[in-house]
Design brief:
single chain; 644 residues; mainly alpha; 34 helices; extended
Amino acid sequence: GRGRGRGRGRGGKADRDRGGRSGSEGSRGRRRGAPARRMDADEAIERALALATTLGGDGGGDDVDMRLVGQLLADCKDARTEAASEAAWSLYQAAVVAGTAAEFNIRQYNFALGAVQRGAAGEERVRTVWDALVAAAVPPNAVTLSQLAHGLCKGAKDVPSTLAALRECASRGAAVDAYVLNILLNACLRELLNAGPDASSDVKAVVKESALAVWEAGKGIHNERTLTSTIKVLADAGDAVGAVRTFRAAWEDETPLDVDALATALRIFAVTEPAAVLIGVMNMAQEQRGLEPNTMCANIVLAACSKDGEFSTALTLWRHMLERRTPPPDKASLASVILACGRAGRVDLALDAFEEGKNKGVECDTVTVNVLLEACAKSDAPPGEALGILMDAIESRIPVDALTISSLLTAYYSSQTPTSLANTPGALDQAFAIVELGRFMSVEPTPRVTNALLRVCIAAGDLPRASRTFEETVATQRDDQPPAVDERSIRVLMDGYAAAGDLAGAARVLRDAECLGVEFGDGTAAALIRACIDAGDVESAMRAYESCVNHHGVGPTTRMVNALLVGLARSGSWREAIRLVSDDVIGSETCEADDETVRLFSSAFEIGGEEEQAEVAKQMGMWLTGSDDALIAHLLERDSDEES
């Protein structure tokens, strides 16, 4: 067959990407018709370096066939390592010096372009080989274009120079196609991926500009792959609007489209457009382009409906998928429609969709159960509804996790008032039984579970049991387990005491947490201070502030100072405000005054009836914030008022 080597120097069709192996080496040591043995990287490097030595010895390349050089360059290319690329470069240089490279045809040049491109010097070496190819007047082909794109474009900044090289290659007879352009776009995508979510605006700008340059250069030859890559690059670079605009222009130009491109476009449209627009795009693709949207496309639309609160539209699409199976729904479809109904407070419709999916054999997993429980928590569904969902999940052998347990706790009690909780025998015990059920199923409590349980205790008015639960959870925690409480647990318990008017109990929560080794920060300290102030007890707020700073080692911070200044301003306690700012703000390394600090500080004087002192406080505050311009403007304004 044509795929088989036919003697010295002839490669089969199956080796087209490699440029073909020479028959002398490709068939040596094997039976005629047997597949060529794939050489490993170490062997390829060893043989390439050995041949380079031979070429550099006495007699040079007199007895070396250029096709053997090409084969070993191809082996180094296939090795895909920097070491193999170094060996290939040594072999290429030796072939040039020995004169063997003067006999290269396009196959050997393509092997060389692919083999030498790895490593820091790869781009320079690719250009050297390309320059030799041009000087030898060897006509390039599609493989040449591909190897040039791979070798020259390592990132977005390389796109302009690579496009210039591709244009030169095309001027010599090679035809640029969408495959080659996509190599450049993939380099842009990799750069964004490597930069991560914190990519700088400069990086994003360069990537965006490069992608648009490729898009403009390829007008008339783009396909579904380059369209997908272009809009994805633009969206990932933060320009979703530009991605949508590019997709619309491609649609008008009748650029080829497939379901992957459609799904990518829908995902980007969902960032800036309402669900109705996504449905319109999907319908147009079906009617005008003959595309059958897949499940992923439908799921993106369902998720958009959920985000926009379009539960009726979500249900219509869901039932269309169930009845016609085009596209067939999956567990993500079910979760999305449940979420859409749950966010609208229609747990009845969410339960209907769940039953419809189950009856049609749609897979249900942990995520589906959790979303359904969250829908129950946001509605006035009877408490038993949520528990029944969990029991069905267990019976169906659907795994549960910590989110399942916490969602069940929230859903089971959300529809009950504190009075009904307190007066229902065994209601609180049932909450603890749910947590124990989770443990039985190997679901250890997480902070989310603990916090949900604490909220149930607080809602039932049993603060002592909430405190015991917090303490026992920490005390029984094994060293090899993830923490079952966090700073949020402290806040839940502290807020419970504060809401009950027990400010001393709220302060005691912080002392107990510190004794148990549970850390908290200035946000929790500020919350305690604010709770005291909201209760109208400025003295307790000051004690809480001092306790956090002097005993718990938290602060002082701007957030804590401002929280206390709220109370001092309301009561006109300007002397205490002066002491606070003097002691904890001026010269502090942890507390930097902001505009709110200045406003509250001066308000303490104004409310306290010290208008002149309030004026001084404003000036002092402006100095504290380093707002020299603001201070000058303020003084000029005051002088102007005095003159008038």
